[in-house]
Amino acid sequence: MQNTYSPSRIGAFDKCKLSYKYVYIDELESDIETIENFRGNMVHQTLEEFYKLIKGGAVKPQEWVISKYRELWGKNYTGNIKIVKKELTADGYFNQGQQCLIDYYDRYHPFNQTKIVKTEHNVNFKVRYNGVEYPFRGKLDRLDWDDKVNIFEIHDYKVTNTLMTQEEADNDWQLGLYHVAVRTEWPDAQAIKLVWHSLLLNKELVSSRTDIQINELQKGVIEKIKEIESCKYFPPEKSVLCNWCDFQNICPLWKHPKEMEELPVNEYKKDPGVRLVTEYKKFEEAKNELKEEIYKIEKEQQKIKEAAIEFAEKEQISIIEGPDMRLKIDVRDELRAPTRSEDQEKWERLRDFLIKEDKYKDVSTVNNNMLNYRLKIWPPELIDKLTKFLIQKEIKAVRLIKK
Fold this sequence. Notes:
- There is one protein chain.
- The chain has two domains: 7-230, Alpha-Beta Complex (Lambda Exonuclease, Chain A); 318-402, no CATH class.
- Helices cover 50% and strands 19% of the residues.
- It has 15 helices and eight strands.
- It has helices at residues 7-15, 17-25, 35-55, 62-76, 90-108, 166-170, 173-185, 211-230, 255-261, 265-270, 272-315, 344-356, 360-363, 368-375, 380-386; strands at 115-129, 132-146, 151-158, 192-198, 203-207, 319-321, 325-336, 391-402.
- Strands 1-2-3-4-5 form a five-stranded mixed sheet.
- Helix 3 (35-55) runs parallel beside helix 5, helix 4 runs antiparallel to helix 5 (90-108) and helix 7 (173-185) crosses helix 8 (211-230).
- It is elongated.
């Protein structure tokens, strides 16, 4: 049976593949609700009730809107609602939601801009491209009809502190897909306006889609669905969104840390996982101390190397005698690729030559290590042509050898 998709389902895959698997493949349920989601739901329900009355011809006063919001909050709020940001309170979230409704009312009163068609409207439609189609479902916060210009308006309420940019609005999948949904129900719709209400910030964003953009959108969505359905590995994605995730108690990134949070100090220290981390950290710190020591040794050794080269050149020798070992001084000429910062013009000429000779892909880029390797296996005639693009540099090396 073919899966039914939604804009939120598509978005969930990109946010965290493991969370997507828990919700849409394993069909796990969560009894956790965050304060942000709760506040958003209360604001949505308040506006739904308000616009239902407007549709029937009654524009209630602002006091009614605030009273309805307070009623819904009081009836539905429980102590189980999760507040991630410990420095904030439920009252603070309540007040923000109330203020955004006041601002919204003041902005759009007397609410005669358009005709209300639907509120919290469930839609079912198909996304199609190149003979492939998938069923979709979703919910429109509000659908209006502007009879003055004969345009449908899809309205979406955002109750978050983040504000999308105009570019993000112009490329948003959700309302773009709802454009498809409205066209499915009203095929004669000539134009559709997409409107986002960022309620906490009292900001409105408007966008629209051309037929070409809608076609490209459906193509992109179907490609994303194919990626989702071919996915075999669902890794967790660590981000700030983890704080609001319902599945930390089973997520491999969070399961053990969350279990440890509940333990008293004595039991915490005895946990085998905690002890492994403690031991590993001890050796990592020892390694870092050794790295510091090695760095100091190499720095001093480099000074001796430079002194040995200088001594060998002065004495015109290539072997320096020691008690039980010798230092061998090797001097050779080596062709190497110029760096971009060293000689921009020569670097570009070398790159262009490699492209012309169809050898650029062999070195990936003008990279000295890769080029040196290729110089050992390319034909002599090609190397002869290549030489004029290279830099000749004298390499001096010091090796410790047995007597």
